[in-house]
Write a structure and sequence with these properties.
Layout: H1 3-30, E1 35-37, E2 44-46, H2 47-63, E3 68-71, E4 90-97, H3 99-103, E5 110-117, E6 120-128, E7 133-138, E8 143-145, E9 148-149, E10 163-165, H4 174-188, E11 193-195, H5 200-209, E12 214-218, H6 222-234, E13 238-240, E14 253-257, H7 260-269
Parallel strand pairs: 3-4, 10-11, 10-12
Antiparallel strand pairs: 1-2, 4-5, 5-6, 6-7, 7-8, 8-9, 12-14, 13-14
Helix pairs in contact: 1-2, 5-6
The chain binds L-MYO-inositol-1-phosphate.
Catalytic activity: a myo-inositol phosphate + H2O = myo-inositol + phosphate
Family: Belongs to the inositol monophosphatase superfamily.
GO biological process, one term: inositol biosynthetic process
């Protein structure tokens, strides 16, 4: 895609994200979220998640009818059911990232919209309607929040100087729970401390704006981290695999960091590694 095409895709994604945020606000004000669970008791979905995803798909498809679509609620139906990312232009949508927060009237929830070409995100938009924060990025054009350039804290190169984001209590499997608590215990005493806000997309944007310095995540899906991952790298940060190598957008694991040195130290400090079926 040429720069003009990328700009057009970002413009559409921003318009659609703002519309999705309005749907989230309306649903919360109405106070009827129609909540159900998916894989286990903490894996929530609301009718608003489904309605927002349908709206985002329909509105983007009006502009780009030949593109492919992946969404949290429709999974891979939008691309014929097969998992994974191909080289074709593919929109990757999390209609409400941080659904648990959305249900609890917590503001750390957002719509996440990414466009991937050649298997890599090239446009990312994360909109937190209750935070009034619109994070945007295009490949090679930097990252912004509400139109203003943002930058990761690139001079934070060691764990002992870093504020780290973790997210305890998200696993169904008791062994995964024990193993990630071991990681939390290992990191908390070697860093400036841990923070958690419950939305992977917004957590990656925190690193991009320099309000935190590193994170690790297992079990999330491509729609949770594709847009936020591009926003972070365009802000000068890095996204890595938890083993320290290049990120795999479908491997369901990621390290984000303000610098490569910090990301690699975080990877080396994790004492347990979890595995999840690929997207
Ligand atoms: C959520 C992520 C969160 C993760 C949760 C869940 P959802 O996405 O943003 O960081 O820990 O398990 O995957 O399901 O709210 O879109």
């Amino acid at each position: 895609m040429n720069p003009e095409q990328l700009l057009d895709c970002e413009r559409v994604a921003i318009q659609v994200a703002i519309g999705a945020g309005a749907m989230m606000r309306t649903a919360r004000q109405a106070g009827r979220l129609e909540i159900s669970t998916k894989d286990f008791s903490k894996d929530l979905v609301t009718e608003t998640d489904k309605q927002v995803e349908r709206s985002v798909f329909d509105r983007i498809r009006q502009h780009f009818p030949n593109h492919r679509f992946i969404g949290e609620e429709s999974r891979f139906e939008g691309i014929g059911g097969e998992k994974g990312l191909t080289s074709e232009p593919t929109w990757i949508i999390d209609p409400i990232d941080g659904t648990m927060n959305f249900v609890h009237n917590n503001p750390h929830t957002c719509v996440s919209i990414a466009l991937a070409v050649g298997g890599q995100p090239v446009v990312g938009v994360v909109y937190g309607p209750f935070l009034d924060k619109l994070y945007t990025a295009r490949s090679g054009a930097g990252a912004r929040c509400n139109g203003q350039p943002i930058s990761a804290r690139k001079n934070c190169r060691q764990l002992s100087d870093a504020l780290v984001i973790a997210e305890p209590g998200i696993f169904k499997d008791p062994d995964d729970r024990r193993r990630d608590l071991a990681n939390i215990n290992a990191i908390v005493w070697k860093s400036h401390g841990l923070r958690c806000n419950g939305s992977a997309a917004l957590q990656l944007c925190c690193l991009a704006e320099g309000s935190a310095d590193a994170l690790w995540h297992w079990g999330i899906h491509v729609w949770d981290y594709a847009a936020g991952g591009l926003i972070l790298t365009e802000a000068g940060g890095v996204v890595l695999d938890t083993q320290g190598g290049p990120v795999d957008w479908c491997r369901r694991r990621v390290i984000g960091a303000s610098s490569l040195e910090l990301g690699q130290e975080l990877s080396a400090t994790l004492v347990e590694h979890l595995e999840f079926e690929r997207d």
